[in-house]
């Protein structure tokens, strides 16, 4: 419902803030939660993009696979 949508938007915003601060491991954890629990306002694909951004340096091959799957 609405609470789930608000929570997922908040998680996406927090993920973006963590990425900007270089806290990629924390961002990855939140982004993977978004992938597992998509909502009407934050899609699974948006979560996958956030995961790919979070792991771009630590797990570049996995990030590339995620992005290729989204094309």
Topology:
Layout lengths: L1 H19 L3 H13 L7 H12 L4 H11 L1
Question: Could you explain how this protein is built, in words?
Answer:
- The protein is mainly alpha-helical and 71 residues long.
- It has helices spanning 2-20, 24-36, 44-55, 60-70.
Write a short abstract of this structure.
The chain is mostly helical. It has helices at 2-20, 24-36, 44-55, 60-70.
Q: Oligomer, anyone?
A: single chain
Quick check: average pLDDT? Answer: 97
User: How would a textbook summarize the main sheet?
Assistant: none
User: How many strand elements?
Assistant: 0
Distance between the termini: 29 Å
- Beta-strand share of residues: under 5%
What is the CA-atom radius of gyration, in angstroms?
12 Å
């Amino acid at each position: 419902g609405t609470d789930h949508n608000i929570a997922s938007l908040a998680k996406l915003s927090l993920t973006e803030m963590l990425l900007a601060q270089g806290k990629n491991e924390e961002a990855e954890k939140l982004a993977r939660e978004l992938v597992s629990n998509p909502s009407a306002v934050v899609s699974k694909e948006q979560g996958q993009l956030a995961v790919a951004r979070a792991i771009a340096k630590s797990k570049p091959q996995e990030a590339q696979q995620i992005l290729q799957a989204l094309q």
